[in-house]
Amino acid sequence: SQKIEQNSEALNIQEGKTATLTCNYTNYSPAYLQWYRQDPGRGPVFLLLIRENEKEKRKERLKVTFDTTLKQSLFHITASQPADSATYLCALDTNYGGSQGNLIFGKGTKLSVKP
Amino acid sequence: EADIYQTPRYLVIGTGKKITLECSQTMGHDKMYWYQQDPGMELHLIHYSYGVNSTEKGDLSSESTVSRIRTEHFPLTLESARPSHTSQYLCASKGILAGVNEQFFGPGTRLTVL
Asked: Which end of chain B is more exposed for a tag (fewer CB within 10 A), N or C?
């Protein structure tokens, strides 16, 4: 079955630096890979989706890459701010071949941005 | 801000009690989901629904049950709560015409069974 690994449980960086979070999966390459943000005591909030035929997707200070050869996605936050501190979840579509299925989630990486 | 609501937000209850966690969405979405999440752990899908009168079990076995009588409403019921049911329960929905598999989450219900 598909397994997701997010590089570390916690990542601490200084304000203004670029945060890079890693998501690795073990089995088939999903049609879609997504990133969510979760704040303590709240439900996840969707940030970005990238399709298997896309190499990179950007949204404001966020950038996601998707390498199906490495079975890896990288999530970057540039010019990080303390308000970016949260847990970031990687999620994969369970269907292979383009049709949308359910999502499976990684444990997340807790990002702390220090002023 | 997503239009998906969960009540109660927090619930402390004794063993053996029957409880229902409420979830409602006003976006007209057909697909709805229930996830269970323990602190520091990943979300596990326990139930989902493709629409009215459709309910399916998710990847994680759960003693809870769900119903979908109306599009906007997807309640989860535990007939007899046990301490092992202590967890955070998250409800989500997805529009079938959304074009992308983006899920909108409610704020969650934190359940503690004593």
From this structure: N
